[in-house]
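Give me the fold.
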Amino acid sequence: MSNIMYNIISVMDKSNDIMFKVGYKIRYERSKLGISQEKLAEMSNLNRNFVGMIERGEANITVKRLERIARALNLDIRELFNFSL
């Protein structure tokens, strides 16, 4: 099975997981701004490794930290829960 197909299947398996959805949305918004995980971590006063875990849906993030990330991305926190890309 190709890497691309595996990634698509992996995303589909996690598509109902709220942590994955929020993490994917953060990654999407960060990418639109053209900033690195390291820069987002710096802007939101978080550890870069933790930002990576959030983006992969591996970390159950607090509302306070979500707020800091949203502010760093120039978003209202509610926008992190709009999963229509």
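The longest helix spans residues 18-33.
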